[in-house]
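Budget justification aside, the reviewers requested a transparent look at the raw inputs and outputs of the sequence design task funded under Objective 1. We therefore reproduce one unedited record. The lines immediately below are the structure tokens for a 315-residue chain.
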């Protein structure tokens, strides 16, 4: 006698009912964030929170131009998981509805208190919660990374507040490195100068604060960690390390400027090498990220066990 066939589980499919509910919710959210998204500068930005985001990306294009690429990578991440989405169990959940309600509450707080960044952060949360409510937790778990990565594009402009601390930290660390190789240097605020007199003197300006490296590094570290690390803990560790690694790479750039200025000449350091060193920092950041990922993803327990001396067999 044949065993009874296992009941077929519901699969993630764009059926008319669920797709219609999702599109209606998305349209309602789009209207809300467009018509009542932001009132900080209606004359220039209108009421749309998306117009506010686009304006800030344009104003700081050099630092945040990668945000457009982040949106494209988030869409690619969804496409990359298309097979897992097709096999995911569909079970609509009230948990997603609660997440949407929390996201809308955050938006109301941001709207009433004139803090558009809160409203921006709530958009990705509302989108993820809607997917959870319509299709269930299995689908929401798969879409967690694309929505979180999209959130990174909407919120990394908060890092602008770190520009001055980054400049101060980079200049002080560069001075420590310069002294380590025997070059006398001092840091006066954001100014790095030779302590010998008559030597180099340059200011770590806003463009050299490392903000661009920090934004780019976090944008690269998130998908690299998600798609190469074997556990969530290792992914989080590598992503967290992207911040100090970016700061270290920028400090090494300023350090190298001081070395070139001291050993070759200030004119070369502040002209040709200054422009070239930006690309050097980018590739150095990538090497540091890949190297850190390789170290984190090692099976250190197996390696330590292999180093233990073997017990001698009894005679």
């Amino acid at each position: 006698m044949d065993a009874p066939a296992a009941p077929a589980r519901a699969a993630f499919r764009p059926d008319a009912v669920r797709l219609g509910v999702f599109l209606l919710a998305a349209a309602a959210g789009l209207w809300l964030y467009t018509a009542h998204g932001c009132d900080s500068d209606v004359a220039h930005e209108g009421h749309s929170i998306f117009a506010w985001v686009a304006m800030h990306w344009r104003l700081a294009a050099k630092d945040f131009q990668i945000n457009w690429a982040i949106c494209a990578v988030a869409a690619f991440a969804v496409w990359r998981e298309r097979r897992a989405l097709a096999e995911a169990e569909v079970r609509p959940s009230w948990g997603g509805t609660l997440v949407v309600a929390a996201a809308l509450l955050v938006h109301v707080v941001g709207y009433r208190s004139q803090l558009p960044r809160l409203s921006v952060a709530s958009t990705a949360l509302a989108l993820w919660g809607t997917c959870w409510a319509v299709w269930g937790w299995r689908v929401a778990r798969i879409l967690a990374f694309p929505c979180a990565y999209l959130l990174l594009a909407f919120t990394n402009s908060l890092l602008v507040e770190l520009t001055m601390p980054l400049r101060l930290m980079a200049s002080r660390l560069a001075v420590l490195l310069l002294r380590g190789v025997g070059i006398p240097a001092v840091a006066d605020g954001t100014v790095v100068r030779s302590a010998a007199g008559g030597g180099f003197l340059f200011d770590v300006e806003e463009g050299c604060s490392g903000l661009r490296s920090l934004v780019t590094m976090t944008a690269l570290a998130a998908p690299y960690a998600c798609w190469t690390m074997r556990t969530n803990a290792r992914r989080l560790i590598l992503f967290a390390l992207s911040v100090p690694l970016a700061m270290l790479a920028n400090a090494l750039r300023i350090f190298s400027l001081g070395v070139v200025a001291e050993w070759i000449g200030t004119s070369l350091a502040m002209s040709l090498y200054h422009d070239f060193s930006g690309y050097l920092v980018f590739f150095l950041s990538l090497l540091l990220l890949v190297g850190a990922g390789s170290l984190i993803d090692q099976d250190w327990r197996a390696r330590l066990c292999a180093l233990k001396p073997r017990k001698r067999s009894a005679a």
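The radius of gyration is 25 Å. Strands lie at 185-188, 191-194, 201-203. Computational costs for records of this kind are itemized in the attached budget.
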